[in-house]
Structures are given as structure tokens and as C-alpha cells.
């Protein structure tokens, strides 16, 4: 296990704005363990950035998640997940199968997330306003995550060492 503080069998929900580095972090796990909303948009439409394909891609993501939770397979959801409505069905799928569900906040500063859009291909560029709104939503969601049913809330720092949040804020 790359991150010893994560159980062998759990659901990891990444939370962060576009450009925060979620997919970079997700690439440290075997590809079969990562449910990437971008990749599933590509799977249903041939275009990872096609926003119109999001709803179909979310349906597929939920189906795959259900199958993996039923098998108690370690799973990472790579999507922004900055809204409660996006997270709710993920938490519910884990709970249905008594799997621990852990939030990993990728709390890269908004300005960095915006800068990282520049070199991206046009179909993968998220407008600066949208990125800032996602970042704000990520910050605001933090205090409610435990009440939503997450068993633990961790932070991915810039080195991708996962630290328990309480340790993080006490430093
Ligand atoms: N990046 C970086 N240093 C890091 C993490 C990421 O320079 N520590 C860079 C990546 O190489 C990439 C960009 O930042 O070019 C965005 O990272 P990515 O993982 O793609 O961000 P996501 O959060 O997955 O963005 P999106 O939601 O748009 O998929
Ligand atoms: Mg990504």
C-alpha cells in the first residue's frame, strides 16, 4: 500500500478543483483502482472534455463503483467532487457495503489551479471563474464531510504525503 494510513479496503474520494492535481495523485494507484470521470467521459463519447457527456459518465462511474464496493475493492474516485450532491451517492455506495469512505482533499491554491489550465489542450481547459468556484466549494465543503458520512478526512499536500487533517492544522 502506497499510503499506509489508508485501509487496504476502502473508498477514497478525491476532492479538489480542476488543476489541483487529483489525477496526478490518482496515477500513484493501479489504473484499475481509479474511477476517473474524465476517462469515463472519454469512454462514452471519445472526448474526455465533453461536458455534455458528464451525466452518462457519472451513471457509468456509479455502476462501476457499486460493482467494486460489492467486491470490497480499494477504489479511488477521481473527479472534482466539490458538491455534496456529487459526493452523496459515492458515500452511499460505500455504506451499502460497509466499506470505509475517506475524503482526500487536494487543496492546491486557486491561483495555481488556474495557472495550470494554460498548457492544457482546448477541450480540457476549465475557465478561471469555474476553477475559482470549484475551489471555493471545496473549501466550504470541508467542515461538513464527517457529517456526510466520511469516516476520515485527509489532505494531500504538495508532496502527496497524506497527513491526518488534525496534524496538518496543528502545525
Ligand atoms: N501538477 C504539478 N505538480 C503537482 C501536481 C500536478 O505540476 N504536484 C500539474 C500536472 O502535471 C498537470 C496539472 O498540474 O499538468 C494539473 O494536474 P492534474 O492532476 O491533471 O489535475 P486534476 O485535479 O486532475 O484536474 P482536473 O480536475 O481538471 O482533471
Ligand atoms: Mg484530472
Automatic annotation (TrEMBL):
* Keyword flag Transmembrane helix: no
Domain of life of the native organism? Bacteria
Q: Which GO terms describe its molecular function?
A: ATP binding
Q: Which UniProt keyword terms apply here?
A: ATP-binding, Nucleotide-binding
Give the protein's recorded name: ATP-binding protein
Source organism per UniProt: Streptomyces ossamyceticus
